[in-house]
Amino acid sequence: MAAAGFYVAVPDFFYGEPFVYDNRPLQDWLKDHGTDKGLEDAKAVVEAIKAKGFSAVGAAGFCWGAKVVTGLSKSKSSIAAAVLLHPSFVSLDNIKEVNVPISILGAEIDDYGPPALLKQFEEILAAKPEVDSYVEIFPNVVHGWAVRYNADDQVAANLANEAHKKMLEWFSLYVK
């Protein structure tokens, strides 16, 4: 994104404590790293970016971050566009509240954002003609494929690069 000319901010919403499967159960980790706090932190980041003189802000959310980005996408005054990649914790009600162009890039093999749920997201968004949307389910990939892939696996790397390209194209369209 930065190489394409976008100003990119990647805040540490986990305050140095990312989720690691071997450390503790996800539900325990989520108690200390809720998406409500993440949304408040993200709003502050968006405002700080706008204070630097940027008039349009796009937000991408990977996994946990997708829930945060859907919160930002309720208001056109917050962000101009959203991209969700292998989303987690996003509900049908969250998608009903989206008011900015949104692209959802999911994995075929994903217990956190299963294809059937993403298809429901697509149906909800299709009923909102005022909100441009795009939903794609990438075949033969698992949750996290866009950031956690084996770089030596050419197929996995190509699919991750394709998702990144689609994200760049989406932001190029809507974040001016």
Describe the structure.
It holds the Pfam family DLH. This is Dienelactone hydrolase domain-containing protein. Residues 1-173 form the Dienelactone hydrolase domain. InterPro entries: AB_hydrolase_fold (IPR029058), Dienelactn_hydro (IPR002925). GO terms for molecular function: hydrolase activity. The chain has 176 residues and is α/β, with parallel strands linked by helices. The protein has one domain (2-174): Rossmann fold. 40% of the residues lie in helices and 16% in strands. It has 6 helices and 4 strands, in the order H-H-E-H-E-H-E-H-E-H. It has helices spanning 26-32, 35-51, 64-72, 92-96, 115-126, 154-174; strands spanning 58-62, 81-85, 102-109, 133-142. A 4-stranded parallel β-sheet has the order 1-2-3-4, with helices on both faces. Strand 1 (58-62), helix 3 and strand 2 form a beta-alpha-beta unit. Helix 2 crosses helix 3 (64-72). The protein is globular. The model has no long low-confidence stretch (mean pLDDT 96).
Give a brief description.
It contains six helices and four strands, in the order ααβαβαβαβα.
- Give the averaged pLDDT, no decimals: 96
Number of domains: 1
- What name is given to the CATH topology? Rossmann fold
Tally of helical segments: 6
Query: Helix proportion of residues, in percent?
Result: 40-55%
Gap from first CA to last CA? 13 Å
CATH architecture descriptor name: 3-Layer(aba) Sandwich
SS elements, strand count: 4
CATH class: Alpha Beta
Q: List the strand order in the largest sheet.
A: 1-2-3-4
What's the name of the CATH homologous superfamily?
A: Alpha/Beta hydrolase fold, catalytic domain
Biggest sheet character: 4 strands, parallel
